[in-house]
Amino acid sequence: MKYCSNCAAEVELKIPEGDNRPRYVCPQCGMIHYENPRMVVGCIPVWEEKILICRRAIEPRHGLWTVPAGFMENGETLEQGAMRETEEEAGARVRIERLHAVYSLPQVNQVYVIFLAPMLDGRFEAGLESLECKLVTPAEIPWDEIAFTAIRFSLETYVRSLKTGATCAYTGFLDKNW
Amino acid sequence: MKYCSNCAAEVELKIPEGDNRPRYVCPQCGMIHYENPRMVVGCIPVWEEKILICRRAIEPRHGLWTVPAGFMENGETLEQGAMRETEEEAGARVRIERLHAVYSLPQVNQVYVIFLAPMLDGRFEAGLESLECKLVTPAEIPWDEIAFTAIRFSLETYVRSLKTGATCAYTGFLDKNW
């Protein structure tokens, strides 16, 4: 951020009065431009005990595998965002069964929120951001080619939950020293 | 948003190529300014079966009661943010026991993430944003003076969980037609 989005003056990085961390502040109109983490919402879509995964057609991690997930948009709930991403990236319709995983990535200012979501039917189709989509058994998950740490966490905990019968959401975070 | 934060040109509201919703786009440098929901992170701090609540010293909802919660900052995990807010608003130190509630407010582009958090000791002190803080039993919760819908949801489900023994996180959202 270089300029104030409200009045176009050059912003300064400084700690506002009564605050305790640096913000972009406009010296002309006084607006404080807060920056906050963003949410990535998605689903583990399941059909007949298989998981729907997508191979990424875009950077970062082009060619690697993920579950459908993307940035939450204004005006939607977490659940609506997760269903939208599943439709956009994998052409699949799902119902939200439960919250499965919440994972913080403080290094990149992101929080993943992943739902467990049975597919309404067995149909799917790669969207513009996917090279291909396919249904895999837990044993067929390509562990060496998973795109993101938070997706790996979501899939690992899902496979574990199948064995233990656990149904509570898993929480995790990428350690800063990792 | 009126001006590009990257080059100070006047932005336009339009649907970028390959996108499906209007964004603020800079006609000069081409930057797309995405806007996304923000997270409010907090705790239900518990000491000897009592809940620590805070009476707000700031708008909105000045004078009404809440649990310690505030906007998640860049560079922190959900858990770190919840503990920071509890320290700032109520002067209390806690450990995170588990995720308790996740609640979407699409009308205001917010998602609340509330943890259950035993206090490390019985000490607390109202921070700058609180008029007072106090420990209350579930029966003493001032239901008619709760500041926010998501906090009400968190407290109602917490009281219910005490009766049922449930330990999974609750999810909810404010219905758009509510």
UniProtKB/TrEMBL annotation, chains A, B:
Cofactors demanded by this protein: Mg(2+)
Gene Ontology MF term list: hydrolase activity
Record domain Nudix hydrolase: where: 36-159
Keywords on record: Hydrolase, Magnesium
CDD domains assigned to the protein according to its UniProt record, in alphabetical order: NUDIX_Hydrolase
Classification via Pfam families: NUDIX (PF00293), Zn_ribbon_Nudix (PF14803)
UniProt-listed InterPro entries: Nudix_hydrolase (IPR020476), NUDIX_hydrolase-like_dom_sf (IPR015797), NUDIX_hydrolase_CS (IPR020084), NUDIX_hydrolase_dom (IPR000086), Nudix_N (IPR029401)
Family: Belongs to the Nudix hydrolase family.
Protein name from the UniProt record: NUDIX domain-containing protein
Source organism of this protein record: Caldithrix abyssi
Taxonomic placement: Bacteria, Pseudomonadati, Calditrichota, Calditrichia, Calditrichales
